Amino acid sequence: MATLTAVYLVLGGYLAVARNDAIQGVVMIVGVIVMIYFVIKSPEVGGLSHGLSHLKAINPSLTAAWPGWHFEGSGFTAFLSSPGVELLGLVLLTSLGALAHPKMVHKFYAMKDDTVVRQAIVISTLFAFLMTFGAYFTGSLSHLFPQVAPLAAAKNFDAIMPTVINVALPSTVVVVVLLLVLSASMSTLASLVMVSASVVTVDFVRDELKPDMSKTAVVTLMRVLVVVFILLSVLLAQAKIAIIITMMAISWGVVSGAFLGPFIWGLYWRRVGKAAAWSGIVMGTGFTLLVGWHYAWNAGYMPVISAIAMLLSLAIVPLVALVTKPASDGCIAAAFGDAAAAVPTPTPGRAPEREPGLEPEPAPEPELALDPALEPETV
To answer: In whole angstroms, what is the distance from residue 278 CA to residue 269 CA?
Structure first.
């Protein structure tokens, strides 16, 4: 998987990522539909109606529209431990929080025009609904498989879905589901590696260290970094470091909490300036790290902590923007593509402020039409 990802990234760049994501998306759609069908038809489930009634007989909460909000005890720890709060935090983190991830923002800015954006809104919403429904629905039906009980008792949660798939699906169909998993993994790996390589090359090396770097050198360095980052991911995966899962939970929370507020408000409100953006970054990052450290980076609490950090970032950015200086007119013009923003409406008795280099050129002096009789003779 890593080798294939490296090949099409190095040879094709971002265009190859976009095209492969489209192909992998189709594979994922087919795989999820096939998986849901065979899990429902398996003898352990016995059809949709029988499966739901059996789940309700085991525990009525398994078929509830939303888990209970009951709190065991009082205080913030009881809030983090509530089943309803845990699910809400997970849903917010994996839906709203994903909007602020660099790999997603990278793709947003690669869209061709507004027509593509409108199409992507519908397609991505339907795709996300199918993926999340398939994951949550088949996960809930796993309670009906006798082979899952020992795994749940041993807290070996990573082996539950592979066990369900091996029991419920024919061997030939398992290959399709395996392709589904590989497609999702390759898509995520390619997006993360592409963003990481471009950030190091363009934002750090070219913009900060070597401004005169040629385009060929930029592309070459990005290709080298793509290979390096993929090799690092393979080494980390082979090492099977237990802390990686916790690091993933922390990174989702830090990135989403830090950038969601500045990104969302910065897209739609011109009042957001540097101070407002930094307030969201500091609030989201600080809350996630401090509270996460207080609870010893508990993986069960981190989705809720991260979701709260996102909401705090969304809340503090507009408040700070109201009492601080907005971005300069030139910055607004460059960000929103509005040339009129570079020339603000003057306040009575005060000359408008202008960014350096944006001063209007003086009007050319009119040419004087001389009478031919007065023109000097050519020697």
So the answer is: 16
